[in-house]
Amino acid sequence: MSDSRMQEPRDAEAYIAPVPRVTIQAFCERQDTASAIAAAASDRRMLKAHVKLHMGGAPAAVEAFRDAPTPNVIVLETNGGREALIRHLDELAEFCDAGTKVIVVGTHNDILLYRELISRGVSDYVVAPVTPMMFVQSVSSLYGDGSGKSLGRVIAVTGVKGGVGSSTIAHNLAFLVARNFDTPTVLVDLDMAFGTAALNFNQDPTNSVADAVSANGLDASLVDRLLARCTDRLSLLAAPAMLDRVYDPSEETFDGLIDILRASTPMVFLDMPTSWTAWSRRMLIAADEIVLVATPDLACLRNTKNMYDVLRAARPNDAAPRVILNMTGVPKRTEISTADFTKAIETMPMCSIPFDPKVFGTAANNGQMLAEISDAGKITDVLFEVARTLTGRAESKPAKKLSILAPFTTLLSRKKAS
């Protein structure tokens, strides 16, 4: 592992929950405010919201809603004084539907004005100039549960082509997060036809992700019943892995499932299939972290560069996708060096994982994770650092040393959990 290269972990940013499916109409007076809201509308957290921009400020809003129903959220920008703003709010209140929330953008950083606006039913007051993330956070806070509890983080792991080992990495990362950080974790296998998560965890679940997305009235209790328990802290929503039907999910098929998991589970790992469809692109863009797994060859170099650029452009307010080079150092195979790979994709891979068919083969055939194979220590250490970086953990609980009976006790615990 002397050639493995690891990026320095980045500080975890303040979490902003995704905005639900709401309609927003903004009435701006300044072009820079309108531009900021337009940029915010393209952020992944606003994926479900429908945003419409108008110029003219509060007076335009009053005129617009005299004979029209109000949206879920109205954004009013004012450059005038307090009296004019209060007058317009009073006029607007005559036409507002019940449940409509109002955000005011103003120029005065005045606590007395803020209190007066709140007392009149205004949901939030934002002081200009407004940035895209300020606006996203303001709207997101309107629909929080008020508990201050962060929703779960979603980490999507995908290969840039078939056969690069992305599923193995996703499964082992989920296992390490659940075990080493003592964090409730759910692994979702989204390779509907050929998923391997159940095999790799030695599970034979009766339910699958297909049952979840096809259920009527899907809720948290139903999802919990569909999960297979791999360990005390790790649950699995397996793929059907059957060819008796063709799976062709729509773009929004998995939205409800992920929303439920995000609201109930601190860590959610998505084992993504190697495909580029409307739904897979949507899932990658909506994730909190993206991991691209590649091997050091020309096809992977091209695909990694393409996916990295597209995903980074689609997520301007988020961390760039992470890259892992897997199966490096295959004997007698010509490879692209890590330095050349890095130069071409213009980012440093998180790490390089060496080719070790004995360790990986033993784990796969036994239905075990690498951390349960005694001679996989160095690879496990690298994957642990990846897990620590993805979760933003500065410190971690040291893993317990495995005894010679570890494979048998782990298998018993899995059977007990299931």
Q: Any idea of the CATH topology of the largest domain?
A: Rossmann fold
**Spatial order of strands in the largest sheet:** 8-9-7-10-6-11-12-13
Q: By helix and strand content, what is the structural category?
A: alpha/beta
Any idea of the CATH class of the largest domain? Alpha Beta
Q: Which range best describes the helical content: under 10%, 10-25%, 25-40%, 40-55%, 55-70% or over 70%?
A: 25-40%
Q: In the CATH classification, which architecture of the largest domain applies?
A: 3-Layer(aba) Sandwich
Query: How would you sum up the global shape?
Result: elongated
CATH superfamily of the largest domain: P-loop containing nucleotide triphosphate hydrolases
Rg from alpha-carbon coordinates: 24 Å
Low-confidence stretches: 1-13, 395-409
Brief overview:
This protein has 418 residues and is of the alpha/beta class. Helices cover 39% and strands 16% of the residues. It is built from 16 helices and 13 strands.
Provide keyphrases for this structure.
disordered N terminus, 2 domains, 8-stranded mixed beta sheet, Rossmann fold, single chain, 5-stranded parallel beta sheet, 16 helices, 418 residues, elongated, 39% helix, alpha/beta
Report what the structure shows:
The protein is of the alpha/beta class and 418 residues long. The chain has two domains: 120 residues, Response regulator (Rossmann fold), CATH 3.40.50; 265 residues, P-loop containing nucleotide triphosphate hydrolases (Rossmann fold). The chain is built from 16 helices and 13 strands. Helix 1 links the parallel strand 1 and strand 2. Helix 1 packs across helix 5, helix 2 packs parallel to helix 3 and helix 6 crosses helix 15. The longest helix has 17 residues. It is elongated. The N terminus is likely disordered.
